[in-house]
Design a protein that fits this description.
Elements (H helix, E strand, L loop, with lengths): L1 H22 L3 H21 L3 H30 L1 H4 L6 H24 L6 H13 L4 H9 L1 H21 L16 H24 L7 H17 L3 E3 L5 H20 L13 H24 L4 E3 L3
Antiparallel strand pairs: 1-2
Length: 311
Amino acid sequence: MMGAVLDPLLALALVAMSVVVIASRRIFDAIIAFVFFGLVVALVWARLGAPDVALAEAAIGAGLTGALLLVAYRRLVTIAGEEAAERLEARRRLAIVEAAFAAALAVSIGWVTLTATPVGDAAGGQVLAELPATGLGNPVTGVLLVFRNLDTLLEMVVLLVALLGARAVRADVPPDDLVTIPRSTPVLNGMLLVVVPLAVVVAVHLLVVGADRPGGAFQGGAVLAAAGVLLVLSGRLVPAVETGRLTSLLAVTGVGVFILVGLGVTLTGRPLLDMPGKWAIYLVETAMMISIAVTLTLLFARADHLRRGAP
């Protein structure tokens, strides 16, 4: 009974937020609508029984992506002025063509889904059958780190390339100060003392339980990155002009450890990227979580390196 009411509401909210994002006249309004759109998508995934995807969507798709868009908007206002930043060209003809194409694509996918002949859950069944041999209880982690780990490695490479690309196109000016509140206030200090350690605990918990339950490196890394964003906004972490080897090392740790483990197993006669045990999965996921957190925090701070700021 509840599903009969909740599902149409979620579908309606999804379409409504999509329209708001596209039709907003102001960039700021579109960004806020996009954040809410991400939260609705997370609820949809949770309703579909995919908690891992729901967690990732809420943390990365809505939370951190929204923060990146907001800080990009702030810098756009700083560079071009508020009026210039809000000047959107109305390209209604192109928008109509794009909307028609998207609608036709959605209808086509829906029609194929409804009329296709079921062929059975072959891939899913094979994963569940082979999962006990990996020592994992979460099939999503099994797919990401065992059965399709090359895809996961490439995702980490893409994230690293995104960071390098952001550095390459970054304007050759000092990063602007994101701190707009007093750096030392009782409320801020108290919040940081509670939220940051709690975020670390939650991130480690998501990493550990990801082997058997919803969670993993991506979700844990997003939570750590959220703590990093908070530290940047509060002035506890500030962009560093000098080269910081530690920051660069942490950013490439995920890809580096993944490749080292994947190549190392070939010395024992195992296939390339084969995980030799659960310990290797935890090792790779820990490195991935750290790299994800550092990379997203650097992207938010628009900095090549970070250093400790004034308390």
